[in-house]
Amino acid sequence: MNLYLRSLRPVQLRLIAAIGRLGKLRLAADACGMTVPAASRMLTEIEVKLGVALFERDARGMKPTASGKVLGHHALKVVHNIDQMAHDFAAHHEGTAGSVRIGAVTGAALAAVIPAILQLKRKAPLLKVSLDVSSSSRLMWGLERGEYDFAVSRLERGANAGDFDVSPARDEEVLLMVHRRHELARRDHLLLAEIADHPWTMQEHGAPIRHAIEIAFREEGVDLPLNLIETASVVAIMALLRDSNVIAAVTQEVADLLLKPPFSADLVLLKTHNSIVIEPYHILRPRDRSLSAGAEQMLALVKTLLEREKVTNSDKWFGDEIN
């Protein structure tokens, strides 16, 4: 008997579970995709092999015996596990479950990665997503050690570009933000020499924004501000802008976050004479690692959103030139 029980096929267990749940052979056969005669023969075969009746038949239907209750209880659990296995496998294959690990610089996270996460999670709520927003150097370090499926980052100097599939993402521009009460808030065509003596906050030395600002000051022949608070934290920058007259160096995406609804902070951008351009960031995917279906879908969404953002900005710049 034990040997036979261990060899019961899923379809047999599914039938026993269905009869116990529905109480009628016809309904159970329909649920299992079988004809009534085929279901009857299968049940009879099981009972003969076990030497016990699993169900009592009467005019109202079928009621499990004591043995039927034991077998039906376990059959129901086995069937549930099989169904869950099929669901989980399909979800993994289709990218609607599993996990995705992403690294991104702040601008990329705001522009494309977070919107992509929200869009995919609406379709696949069980997909576990991990997002690390950090500096390019930290992201490259993590990417090389397998912490991320892919990253949206700048390619650090000295990194072996051949280790990655590199997809161009977008350029960035440094914007200078102040509180609306700042004395420079209403000035136009500001030169860096006019604003260098004010308090500033920017990223530490070596960060892309800081590097771009250093180049801009050097090109205008001006020394870098001495009254400086170094931080890359958006929360810290917001607090400094709220409570002081600092000039904050931010990216377009951070500016959009703070200036547009629902936040609409009491901040403005300085109108500088020259633009300050940062080196572009890229989508970096290790060549030696395959991605899960969920990660592939996330990567495709990020690429689409970044491309859409690039086209939108191109149209905006072109329109500005015409006007």
UniProtKB/TrEMBL annotation:
Q: Where is the HTH lysR-type domain?
A: 12-65
Which SUPFAM superfamilies does the annotation name? Answer: Periplasmic binding protein-like II, Winged helix' DNA-binding domain
Quote the InterPro entries the UniProt record gives. Answer: HTH-type_LysR_regulators, LysR_HTH_N, LysR_subst-bd, WH-like_DNA-bd_sf, WH_DNA-bd_sf
A Gene Ontology molecular function term for this protein is:
DNA binding
Q: Which UniProt keywords apply?
A: DNA-binding, Transcription, Transcription regulation
Please give an example of a GO cellular component term from this record.
cytosol
Translocase found in the keyword field: no
What Pfam families does this protein map onto? HTH_1 (PF00126), LysR_substrate (PF03466)
Q: Which family does it belong to?
A: Belongs to the LysR transcriptional regulatory family.
Protein's UniProt name: LysR family transcriptional regulator
Provide the species name: Paracoccus siganidrum
